[in-house]
Each structure stands twice: as C-alpha cells, then as structure tokens.
C-alpha cells in the first residue's frame, strides 16, 4: 500500500472504530505516558500547573528532574524516597483507559503495550504481563546501585513505606527500585520489543508529551501506512504529520469511552473498570494496618486501600511539601553535623579525644 493511501475513511472516531472492528486491524501497539494515570490521582511530570516538575521547581533542588537522576541520587537519595513513598503502588485505582487496554487484550487485538509509567496500573487493571513493556522500569524489583545485588521485595516495601533509605547488605551501597533514572540504560525487554512497533496495524499514543528519548522515537517506527492515533490533552511529537495520523485532543478516559461507544464495547469497558474498584476501609482500620499490606499490587478481587488525597493536584502538593521538608531537614542536619564537627575539632585541638558521635547521623 502506498503511504498516502487512506486507511481510515475519515480522520474521526467513527472511522477509527470501523477500522478497529475490521479484519485489517489485528495488531494494536500502544505507547503510554503519565497522562493515562492522572485520572487515578497520580500527577504527570510536565503539565504546567499540576505536573511534578513545575511543582518541584520551587524547591531547593539543582533542577526538578534531579529527583530521577542517578548522580543526584548517589549524593542525596532522600527526595526520591520521599516521592516513592507517596507513589508506591497499591494505593491507586486504574483508570478507564487502563481497562480499555485490558479490553483490547480481551478482544485479541493488543500486540504490545509500551508504557513509560512506573505505577503498574496496567498490571493491576489486568492487562496480561506478557503484553506490557515497562520501558522506564517499575517498583517490582530493586538492587544495589554499586554491586547490583538484588534486594528483598518485602524489606524494600517496608523501608519505602517507613521512609527509610534501604542499603545493600553486601556492600552498604544505596538500593534503588529498578526504575530507569536519567543517565541509566533502558531495560533489555524494551530494546528487544522495539521491532514490535513495525508490526502494528494501529499505533495509539496516549497521555505522553513524547519528550523523553528513546521512548518517543518509537512512534517513528510505525509502518508508513499504519494509522497513528494520538489521544492527549495537547498536540505532541510528530503525530499529525503523516496522512494516516489522527489526533484526538481531550482526556484519555473521555476519548476512549467515545471510541468504545462507537465499537459497541461500552458495557464491557465499564464492567471491566468496575472490577478495579478499590474497597475503601475506614481511616482507623487503614491506620492500623499501615505498612503491612499497603503498597502491595493486588488482584482485582482483593481489597486495596484508597490513598487520600485523591486528585493528582492534591498529591503533587503533598509530594512537593514532603520533599521540601526533607531537603530542609537535610540542610539543618548537615549544619548540625558541621557544628558538631567544628566543636569536636576544637576539643581535639585542646587535646581531648574526638568522640565518634560527632560524626554520626551525617549525610551520605
Ligand atoms: P509528561 O508529564 O511529560 O506528559 C504527560 C502528557 O499527558 C502531557 O502532554 C499532558 O498534557 C497529557 N495529559 C495529562 N493528563 C491527561 C489526560 N487526563 N488525558 C490526556 N492527556 C493528558 O509525562 P510523560 O510523557 O509520561 O521518566 O513523561 C515521560 C518521562 O519523563 C517519564 O516516564 C519520566 C519523566 O521524567 C523518568 O523519570 C525516567
Ligand atoms: Zn551492594
């Protein structure tokens, strides 16, 4: 087929639905970003008001992205761990869009779901594991950043929820979830799955600013006649430049709901989403068990605790304040240490033996 031949009759949702329902569309590849999870109450990174980076910008960090930067983490892992505690999986409900992805799999149409998200909401929504490529890793496993020794899952969960910094039992190095930080390479599974994009009959890009490479570059690997659909609040990347591109501006949940209505899948979609419902416990009960089973990724019929505050806007404020407090704490601790060291030096100069405690409690 020539690359200019029309695959979708029109550049609209009914034509997209008609194509998905046809036997020409067998393999759908998805590319996801943080915008897919904002309706779950998780902030994205680059939205001007509600994004994590805009909010972190008011803190005393060298730059907002430093929280996810490996060299900064080596020097100060506390901001990352503060964020990790707030975002730890198990507290958030998948969105309608996550259930849509599961529905595509149920209809045998999902080839690969590439996600940049570390929230594992695709898994919680019931998308089969073998269809998901977590390009920027996830909280599912962790290891020492120096000797690379894996670290126990339960111990990690306990440490993160207790806001403690986990350390390697072998070499004392910092332990980090297998989330890809700036300055690190992407997982092998991602590299191996890159050719899958060329097999797509349809590429759907949702909720991403397409600013981070190499992920963003996947969109260029779709075949010349493969329709590329962007579902996002704003226009991003190069989608819209090819004749078969379709840009659907709006909230992911609203756009996929319209699409499912056209496909006659609306009830199925809402039934699947209903299964992801979080059964809220009373706050007292929640308090009691805290740190025990919070954070665990649960199956759809199991009970998970709801995380308050519920909106991405509220949460980004809470995260920013918590990191801000930690940074201030850090600063004052290091000042106290400095004072202690100076005092100890004076003592030493006076011929007194230097006490070990003057060095204790210092920064890493
Ligand atoms: P961004 O925050 O860069 O982009 C999110 C996009 O989703 C923006 O274009 C928003 O307008 C849009 N959006 C937000 N809510 C939406 C909604 N309800 N419906 C539709 N669109 C919505 O997030 P990512 O593109 O995922 O990497 O960011 C990519 C990477 O940058 C992340 O994986 C992370 C970050 O630094 C690492 O930490 C390595
Ligand atoms: Zn180690």
UniProtKB/TrEMBL annotation:
Needed cofactors:
Zn(2+)
- UniProt GO cellular component terms: mitochondrion; nucleus
Q: Where is the composition biased (Basic and acidic residues)?
A: 327-338, 347-358
* InterPro entries to which the protein is assigned, alphabetical: DHS-like_NAD/FAD-binding_dom, NAD-dep_sirtuin_deacylases, Sirtuin, Sirtuin_cat_small_dom_sf, Sirtuin_class_I, Ssirtuin_cat_dom
Q: Give every Deacetylase sirtuin-type domain span.
A: 6-266
**Could you confirm whether the keyword NAD appears in this record?**
yes
Q: Where is the composition biased (Acidic residues)?
A: 285-303
Domain of life of the organism in this record?
Eukaryota
> EC number(s) on record?
2.3.1.286
Subcellular localization(s) per the UniProt record: Mitochondrion
Q: Which GO terms describe its molecular function?
A: histone deacetylase activity, NAD-dependent; NAD+ binding; zinc ion binding
Keywords linked to the UniProt accession? Metal-binding, Mitochondrion, NAD, Transferase, Zinc
Residues recorded as binding Zn(2+), renumbered to this chain, are 144, 147, 168, 171
Q: Which reaction does it catalyse?
A: N(6)-acetyl-L-lysyl-[protein] + NAD(+) + H2O = 2''-O-acetyl-ADP-D-ribose + nicotinamide + L-lysyl-[protein]
Q: Where are the catalytic residues? A: 136 (proton acceptor)
- Region of interest: Disordered: 280-364
Q: How is the cofactor bound?
A: Binds 1 zinc ion per subunit.
| PANTHER family named in the record | NAD-DEPENDENT PROTEIN DEACETYLASE SIRTUIN-2 (PTHR11085:SF6), NAD-DEPENDENT PROTEIN DEACYLASE SIRTUIN-5, MITOCHONDRIAL-RELATED (PTHR11085)
Stated name of the protein = NAD-dependent protein deacetylase
**Species of provenance:** Roridomyces roridus
């Amino acid at each position: 087929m020539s690359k200019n031949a029309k695959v979708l009759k029109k550049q609209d949702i009914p034509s997209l639905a008609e194509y998905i329902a046809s036997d020409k569309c067998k393999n759908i590849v998805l590319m996801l970003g943080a915008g897919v999870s904002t309706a779950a109450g998780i902030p994205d990174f680059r939205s001007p008001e509600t994004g994590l980076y805009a909010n972190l910008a008011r803190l005393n960090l060298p730059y907002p992205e430093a929280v996810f930067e490996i060299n900064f983490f080596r020097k100060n892992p506390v901001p990352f761990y503060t964020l990790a505690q707030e975002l730890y999986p198990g507290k958030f409900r998948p969105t309608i869009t996550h259930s849509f992805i599961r529905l595509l799999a149920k209809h045998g149409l999902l080839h690969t779901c590439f996600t940049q998200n570390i929230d594992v909401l695709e898994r919680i929504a019931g998308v089969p594991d073998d269809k998901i490529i977590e390009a920027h890793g996830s909280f599912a496993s962790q290891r020492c950043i120096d000797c690379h020794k894996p670290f126990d899952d339960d111990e990690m969960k306990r440490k993160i929820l207790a806001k403690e910094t986990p350390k390697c039992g072998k070499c004392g190095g910092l332990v980090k979830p297998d989330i890809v930080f700036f300055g690190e390479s992407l997982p092998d599974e991602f590299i191996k799955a890159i050719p899958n994009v060329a097999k797509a009959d349809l590429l759907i890009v949702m909720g991403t600013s397409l600013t981070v490479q190499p992920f963003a570059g996947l969109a260029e690997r779709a075949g010349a006649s493969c329709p590329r659909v962007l579902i996002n609040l704003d226009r991003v990347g190069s989608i819209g430049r090819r004749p078969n591109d379709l840009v659907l501006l709006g909230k992911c949940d609203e756009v996929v709901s319209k699409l499912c209505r056209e496909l006659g899948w609306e009830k199925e979609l809402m039934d699947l989403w209903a299964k992801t419902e979080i059964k809220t416990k009373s706050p007292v009960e929640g308090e009691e068990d805290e740190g025990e089973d919070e954070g665990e990724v649960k199956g759809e019929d199991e009970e998970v605790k709801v995380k308050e505050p519920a909106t991405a806007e509220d949460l980004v404020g809470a995260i920013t304040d918590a990191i801000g407090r930690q940074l201030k704490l850090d600063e004052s601790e290091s000042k106290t240490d400095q004072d202690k060291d100076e005092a100890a030096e004076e003592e030493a100069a006076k011929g007194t033996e230097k006490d070990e405690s003057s060095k204790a409690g210092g920064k890493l």
